[in-house]
Write a structure and sequence with these properties.
Blueprint: E1 3-11, E2 23-29, E3 32-37, E4 47-50, E5 55-58, E6 60-65, H1 67-72, E7 77-78, H2 85-98, E8 108-113, H3 124-131, E9 136-140, E10 145-148, H4 150-155, E11 165-166, H5 167-181, H6 184-200, E12 203-208, H7 214-223, E13 230-236, H8 240-245, E14 260-268, H9 301-313, E15 318-322, H10 325-338, E16 342-346, H11 352-361, E17 364-367, H12 370-382, H13 393-399, E18 403-405, H14 416-424, H15 442-447, E19 464-467, H16 479-486, E20 490-495, E21 498-500
Parallel strand pairs: 1-4, 1-5, 6-12, 7-8, 8-9, 12-13, 13-14, 14-15, 15-16, 16-17, 17-18
Antiparallel strand pairs: 1-2, 2-3, 5-19, 9-10, 10-11, 19-20, 20-21
Length: about 500
C-alpha cells in the first residue's frame, strides 16, 4: 500500500474544527491520513512532500458540472459579449468566412449568448443568411436552449422552426452534439485537459451532471487511466430504469481505482432565468408577450413526486434543478411527501418560507455563486420585484441549510476559488454588492466547498490541497477577501493519497 509523508504543513481550520498550532507532519497510508505529529520520521521507500510551511486543507469539490460540455467549450465560439442577435450573427459570419475551404463535416459551435437581455429573440433565418449549408449550433449561456441554423436542425434531426430549441426538446439534442462534432480521441484529449486544469486548482472531486450514461462512461475512463479525481455520476430519468436494473445505489463504487461512484438521479424541474422559463409564483416583468408568463415546469408535481419516490425506493439520492421560486416550492413538496434525500440544484429564487422548509427537510442547497455575477443585470430586468430573494446564500446558511458550492461548468468556469470569491463579494464591477446581506465569509465558503469534510487530521480522507497562502488571513469578506481567494496558488493536490503538481 502506498505511503506519503507531508512534512511541515500548517493546517487550516475548516467547519469550526480546531487545527494544531504551528507546522506538523502528516503520514498518509493508502487513501487515509493515519498520523499527525510535530515531526515524523520517513519510513523506507515512503514518498515525501515538503510543504515548507504551506497551508493544508481538505480538497475542493465542484458539486455541479457538465464535464463533456466544459471540455468542448475550448473549441466553441465565445458569444458571451453579445448584446443582440446582430452581434452574434456578425461573429458567426466571421467564423464561417475563416472556415471556407475547411473540412466538409465542420460544425460551428458557439456558447454564451443570453437572450433575456436582448430586445428581440433570434431567428433561424438570420443564421441561415450567413452560414448556408454549414451547420451552426449556438448554445445559450445557461445551456437551456440552442439557436440552430437549418443545416444544424437537419443534421441533428430537429423539426424545422423559426426560433430556438429550448428546454426538454433541447436537452437530448445537446447530448447528441458529441456524436457529430468529436472523435473519440479528440474527446479524450479534451477531457484530459480540463481534468488536469481542475486538479491544478485543488479540485479533488466533481458531481458529473452531463447528459450521458455517466456511470458506464466514467468507469471506462477511470479504468483506462483518464480519471485523476473523484467523480460522482448522475443519471437522468431516461437512464433511471437501467440504473435500477444494474443495482446501482448512490455511493456505490463503479471503477477499479475507487474514484468513480454512483451519484444522484438528476431532474430538471424547470427552466432558467435567461431563457425566461424558470417557474415563478409571479409573472416575468417586461413588454414581451411570453407563451408562459411565469415560466413553466418541466414535470407535473405528481411526476416529480413519482420520480423522487422511485429513486428513494432504490437508494438513490436526488438532485432537483429548481431555479424559480414556484419550482423550488414544488420540489420541496416532493421531498416532504417522499422522504427523499438530496439537493435542490441552483435554488436561485427562493420564497422565505421555503428557506426554512429546506432546512427542516435537510435538503442540501447546491448553489453556484459565480452565476450571481452574470445574472445581476438580467435579474433586475426580469425579476426587479423579487431581486432581494435571489441567491439567498447567507439566509439559507443561517437557517441551517447545508450549502454545497459548484460552477455548473460550462455556465461558469470550473474553479472553486472563483465560486468562493463570488460568495464573499457579490459584485463583478465597481457597483455595490448585490444583496450584500447574503454574503458569506471565507470560512463559510471554504466549508461549503469541501464535500462535508472538516479540518484535516488523523482519519481524514487523503484528498487534500496544499496552498501557498493562508485563506483565512485578512478580511473575512469583501473585495480584499475575494481577490485573495482568486489569487490562491495551489502547490499540490492529493487525491486518494496520490500527490500531483509538486516535486516529491
Amino acid at each position: 500500500m502506498s505511503s506519503l509523508l507531508i512534512r511541515q504543513a500548517r493546517i487550516v481550520p475548516v467547519a469550526g474544527a480546531a487545527a494544531p498550532p504551528g507546522a506538523v507532519d502528516l503520514r498518509i497510508v493508502g487513501d487515509r491520513v493515519v498520523e499527525v505529529a510535530p515531526a515524523l520520521r520517513p519510513a523506507a521507500s515512503e514518498e515525501v512532500l515538503e510543504a515548507e510551511g504551506r497551508w493544508l486543507l481538505p480538497g475542493l469539490w465542484d458539486q455541479h458540472v457538465h464535464l463533456g460540455q466544459w471540455a468542448a467549450n475550448a473549441s466553441r465560439l465565445d458569444l458571451s459579449s453579445t448584446s443582440s442577435p446582430e452581434d452574434a450573427v456578425r461573429l458567426v459570419a466571421a467564423e464561417v468566412g475563416a472556415r471556407v475551404g475547411g473540412a466538409p463535416d465542420t460544425v460551428i459551435q458557439g456558447f454564451g449568448h443570453r437572450t433575456a437581455g436582448w430586445d428581440r429573440q433570434p431567428t433561424v433565418a438570420e443564421l441561415d443568411a450567413v452560414s448556408g449549408d454549414l451547420p451552426v449550433v449556438l448554445i445559450s449561456g445557461d445551456a437551456h436552449h440552442g439557436w440552430l441554423n437549418s443545416a444544424a436542425l437537419r443534421l441533428l434531426g430537429v423539426p424545422p422552426r423559426d426560433g430556438v430549441v429550448e428546454e426538454n426538446e433541447w436537452f437530448p439534442v445537446f447530448a447528441r452534439l458529441d456524436e457529430v462534432t468529436q472523435t473519440a480521441e479528440g474527446k479524450r484529449t479534451a477531457y484530459a485537459k480540463v481534468l488536469g486544469a481542475a486538479v491544478r486548482r485543488g479540485v479533488v472531486g466533481v458531481r458529473e451532471m452531463e447528459w450521458a450514461d455517466n456511470a458506464t462512461e466514467w468507469a471506462e475512463r477511470s479504468n483506462s487511466g483518464l480519471a485523476v479525481l473523484r467523480v460522482r455520476t448522475a443519471t437522468y430519468a431516461g437512464g433511471l430504469a437501467e440504473t435500477i436494473a444494474a443495482g446501482r445505489r448512490s455511493g456505490d463504487v463503479l471503477d477499479e481505482a475507487g474514484l468513480v461512484t454512483m451519484g444522484p438521479l438528476k431532474i430538471i424541474s424547470d427552466g432558467s432565468l435567461n431563457t425566461r422559463t424558470a417557474f415563478c409564483h409571479d409573472p416575468y416583468v417586461g413588454t414581451d408577450v411570453l407563451e408562459h408568463p411565469r415560466g413553466r415546469p418541466n414535470n407535473s408535481p405528481e411526476e416529480l413526486a413519482e420520480l423522487l419516490a422511485t429513486a428513494t425506493a432504490h437508494e438513490l439520492d436526488v438532485a432537483v434543478h429548481a431555479i424559480g421560486d414556484a419550482a423550488v416550492g414544488i420540489a420541496l413538496d416532493a421531498f416532504s411527501h417522499t422522504g427523499a434525500h438530496g439537493s435542490i440544484e441552483h435554488a436561485q429564487l427562493v420564497a422565505s418560507d421555503d428557506v426554512e422548509r429546506m432546512a427542516r427537510l435537510r435538503v442540501v442547497a447546491s448553489v453556484q455563486p459565480a452565476h450571481l455575477l452574470d445574472d445581476r443585470d438580467v435579474t433586475h430586468q426580469c425579476w426587479p420585484d423579487r431581486a432581494d430573494r435571489c441567491f439567498p446564500l447567507r439566509s439559507m446558511l443561517d437557517a441551517g441549510v447545508q450549502l454545497a458550492l459548484g460552477s455548473d461548468a460550462p455556465v461558469a468556469a470550473l474553479d472553486p476559488w472563483e465560486a468562493m470569491a463570488a460568495a464573499v463579494h457579490r459584485t463583478a464591477d465597481d457597483r455595490e454588492e448585490w444583496n450584500a446581506a447574503e454574503t458569506l465569509t471565507v470560512a463559510q465558503a471554504l466549508a461549503a466547498s469541501v464535500d462535508g469534510a472538516t479540518t484535516v487530521g488523523a482519519g481524514s480522507l487523503a484528498d487534500l490541497v496544499l496552498i501557498d497562502s493562508d485563506p483565512l488571513a485578512g478580511a473575512d469578506s469583501g473585495a480584499e477577501a475575494a481577490q485573495r481567494l482568486r489569487s490562491t496558488v495551489v502547490h499540490a493536490t492529493v487525491v486518494a493519497g496520490v500527490a500531483t503538481g509538486a516535486t516529491l
